[in-house]
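Problem statement: downstream parser choked on a complex file, so we are re-checking the raw output for the adenosine monophosphate run. The parser issue turned out to be on our end (a line-ending mismatch), but while we're here, posting the original submission so the record is complete.
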Amino acid sequence: MSNCIFCKIVAGDIPASKVYEDDHLLAFHDIAPKADTHLLVIPKAHIENLNDLTPAHSELMGHLLVTLPRIAGAQGLKGFRTITNTGVEGGQEVFHIHFHILGGADLPGF
Ligand code: AMP
C-alpha cells in the first residue's frame, strides 16, 4: 500500500530501528515509546487490522504469535504486555496490523 507508513518501512523507503526480520515479519522500535521497551511486530503483508483477518491468514498470524515472545525475549524481556488496537474506536492510528510489545520497569497496571 503506497500510503501506508509501515509498508514504507517494510520496503525500506523510510528508516526504522529494526530488531527482527524474516520473510514474513518485521519488528522495530516504536518511534514514540510508551515504556522502557516498546516494540512493534508487523506482518510484511498489508492487512489493516484484526477485523480484516480471514482463515487464509491463519498460518501467517500463527507464525507472528509464536515468534513474538522470542522477539521480546531477545530484547531481554521475561514478561511483557501485548496490545493490538483495532479500528478508530479501538485507538488504532496506523492501519497496518501491528502488535505492540511493552516491557521494562514501571509498566503501569492495566
Ligand atoms: P496504534 O495507535 O496502535 O495504531 O499505534 C501506532 C504506533 O505506531 C504508535 O505507537 C506510533 O508511535 C507508532 N509509529 C508511528 N510511526 C512510526 C514510525 N515511523 N516508526 C515507528 N513507530 C511508528
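For whoever reads this later: Residues 5, 16, 30-32, 40, 85, 91-94 surround adenosine monophosphate (CB under 6 Å).
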